[in-house]
Amino acid sequence: MLDRMIRAAKLDPSLYEEVEADAASMPQATGVVLIAAVAGGIGTIGEAGAPGFFFGTLLSLLGWYIWSFITYIVGTRLLPQPATQADLGQLLRTIGFASAPGVLRVLGVVPGVGQLALAVSALWSLAAMVVAVRQALDYDSTGRAIAVCLIGWVVQILIIAIPFLVLGMFVAGSGGQVPAA
Predict the structure, then answer these.
(1) How far apart are alpha carbons 52 and 17 in whole angstroms?
(2) Percentage with pLDDT > 90 across the chain
(3) DSSP notation for 39-96
(4) pTM score, two decimals?
């Protein structure tokens, strides 16, 4: 698994082809997402504490699934190319491995380096996702893969953010207290 994570972080297209074709690699892809999520939780624990660590890890898993599902729909239904053939499992595996650079988020706890590490990790993970999507959807255009990734990212953010916004408005409207049922 470590070798695959390194190859994913190196943006190796053959790695993404490999995990796309290997249905048995789903536990590894899930493991990569969990490792990156835990690294992110550790990287932000100073700001968010234990609840932030727990919810951040949970949201990373949820975000992975949502982004993969949206990418699958957009990539295979709205923006396919003639050679595009993929299923949700293929996108989950390739996008899961694309989160390998997220391990750098653990450096978020290092004063003076933390913000830079988080930014580099985010951009590197996005680049890995573009390669993963290009390979999984059999695109011959990186531009199309970028478009699919950006659409999926925006929709995923909206899906995850809306419940928090609604809850925030609900709590704010009750004077900061959640009313008893």
Answers:
(1) 34
(2) 55
(3) HHHHHHHHHHHHHHHHHHHHHHHHHHHHHHHHHHHIIIIIS--TT----HHHHHHHHH
(4) 0.83
Q: Tell me how far apart the alpha carbons of residues 52 and 54 are, in angstroms, rounded to a whole number.
A: 5
153-160: long-range contacts, CB 8 A cutoff, minimum separation 24: 153/67, 153/126, 155/66, 155/70, 156/63, 156/66, 156/67, 156/70, 159/66, 160/59, 160/62, 160/63, 160/66
Q: Note whether 20 and 90 are within 8 A (CB).
A: yes
Q: Which string of DSSP letters, residue by residue, matches 113-170?
A: THHHHHHHHHHHHHHHHHHHHHHHTT-S-HHHHHHHHHHHHHHHHHHHHHHHHHHHHH
- Predicted confidence at residue 180, as pLDDT, reads 46
